[in-house]
Amino acid sequence: MVDRRDPERTRARLLDAALAEFAAHGRAGARTSAIAARAGVNKQLISHHFGGKDGLYAALVERWESTEATYGGADAPLADVVARYVEDGVAQRDLHRLLLRASLEDAEQGGGLDADDLTDMRRRQAAGEVTDKLDPAFVLLALQAAAAAGVVFPGDVRRVTGLAPDGERFAAWHAGQLRTLVELLGATGRMDE
Fold first, then answer.
1. DSSP letters of the chain?
2. Ranges under pLDDT 50 in the chain
3. Do 122 and 36 share a structural domain?
4. Residues 60-99: tens digit of each pLDDT
5. pTM
6. In terms of residue numbers, what domain contains 52?
7. 169 shares a domain with 87
8. For the chain: N or C, fewer Cβ within 10 A?
C-alpha cells in the first residue's frame, strides 16, 4: 500500500489509476475499488483526496484542460493546434480514450468541444485561416474526428498506413498530413474567390 504520509504521491497514483479505469470502462463502468486496487491504496482515500468518483473524474478533466491549454490557443496557427492534438493523442492515449468515452456517453463534463471552440473557429474563419465555403461547426467537428483517428481507428491506421497508431512515426506523419489539410482549408477559400 502507498504511504498515507505522501498525499501528493497518493493523489498522482489515484489519478493515473483512474485514468486507466475510466478510459477502459467509461465513467459509469469504472469502479472505485478497481481504481484503488490499481493505485495500491485503500478505497477510502479516493473520497479523502477527491470527494469520490465524480471528484476524481473532474480532476482528470482538469488535467486534460491544463494539457490542452499548452497547445497555443487562439494565438497559435490552427495547423499547429490540430497537430498538437494528434501528437498528444499518441502520447496520452488513455486520456484521449477517456474524452472519447465522455463524448460517446454525451457527458456534460468531459472536456470536449464547446461554444468557445466554435467561437474560435469562426474567428479563424473570419481571419482567413479557414475557407468561408465551409460551416465552421463542420470544420471543427471534422478536424476533431481527423485528429482522433489514431485513437478511434487503430486497426484502420495499421491496415491503411502500415504504421502503429501509438507510435512516433504515425504521430509525425498524421500531424504533418493534418497541418497540410488545415493549410489547404485556408488556401481554398482565397484561391477560388
1. ---TT-HHHHHHHHHHHHHHHHHHHHHHH--HHHHHHHHTS-THHHHHHHSSHHHHHHHHHHHHHHHHGGG-GGGS-HHHHHHHHHHHHHHTHHHHHHHHHHHHTT-SSSS---HHHHHHHHHHHHTTSS-TTS-HHHHHHHHHHHHTHHHH-HHHHHHHH-S-TTSHHHHHHHHHHHHHHHHHHHHHHHHT-
2. 189-193
3. no
4. 888 888 888 888 778 899 999 999 989 988 888 888 888 8
5. 0.80
6. 7-62
7. yes
8. C
